[in-house]
Amino acid sequence: MYCLNDKQQEQKQELVMKDRAEILLFSQCYGNQRELIQQFNEVRQLNPKLSKPVLHITLSLSPGEQLPKDKLMEICQDCAKDMGFENNQYIAIHHRDTNHQHLHIVANRVGYDKRTVSDSRNFQKIAAYCRRMELKFDLKQVLSPRQFLSKEQRLIPRQDARKEQLKKDIQQTLKQAKSYGEFEQKMKSLGYQVLKGRGISFIDDKKVQIKGSEAGFSLMKIEKILALKQNLAVKELLKQNQPRISLKQQYENIRKPLSTGDKIILEDNKFNGYERQPVIDLQKQIADLINQVTKPEQIPEQLAPELLRKLKQKKRHRHHL
Is the model's pTM score more than 0.90? Predict the structure, then answer.
């Protein structure tokens, strides 16, 4: 029932926003947080073997969209009917701590009749329900998660603002970081939790987890970029510490084998300020290279349908060969 609490910083437990939660609905329950927990626990004992008795659903409107309280209540009631817990204990809460309206519904999967609401295919059910509510309340229509779409719908280009922001943050951090430890620390300072195993994932401040590969930056790519930067940094350091030979001296060295009759006059002012040029050029090359390698990998699902068809045709052609 943390949804009923005021928003706090996780580490310092300092109050960030007071009165962020507005209770829209009580169903088969009542009271404060302590009383609600007690009531939920009493009913869940009707099915004590159930390991996950609580269902938590979050519904968010797009930024800029607003619905009055009665419409928000209707959305919550429709959701309860659609998911099959309209006769169970549940509470609906409206949060005001972001720039867009969002709702939390906390329901007891165990009913007074001892029956348990199934949580099978919940994500798919909720996605379908949201598409219906968009039409009913004239809200912005978006596509469901890709795994719930038909083959034709999966080819439709789509813009995921959350993934795009993660992509930008990773790209910018890779340009700044000199090691993996520094990269992870900088990502955490931007508000992400970093999960590293066989791959890498990031959890944003809304508790949404995204794989690095989904944003175009797999763990392998991140590690390759950081290793390349370290390698280039060593080369640059060695280059800077090498004895510098001016272009004039280099020319003199080349000129020595020439016969004395072939005199070439060198103007000293042509070589003023040229000693540092090789180092400056190397730094520019490194910067250009880092910009190139820190571009995210292309993700097939983000490609245009026509391009996807061409890629598939090429693969089939190679297979036949």
Answer: no
Which of the listed residues 149, 183, 217 is the one where a domain comes to its end?
149
Kindly state whether residues 214 and 243 are assigned to the same domain: yes
Domain count, the chain: 2
> Following CA atoms 110, 113, 115, 119 in sequence, which dihedral angle do they give, to the nearest 10 degrees?
-40
Domain that holds residue 18: 2-149
Tokens of 122: 């919940």
3-state secondary structure (DSSP) of residue 270:
helix
DSSP 259: -
For the segment 81-137, what is each residue's pLDDT rounded down to a tens digit? 999 999 999 999 998 766 678 899 999 999 999 999 998 888 889 888 998 999 999
Sheet holding 54-60, edge to edge: 21-27, 90-95, 102-108, 54-60
CATH number at residue 15: 3.30.930
Non-local CB neighbours of 224 within 8 Å, separated by 6+ positions: 293
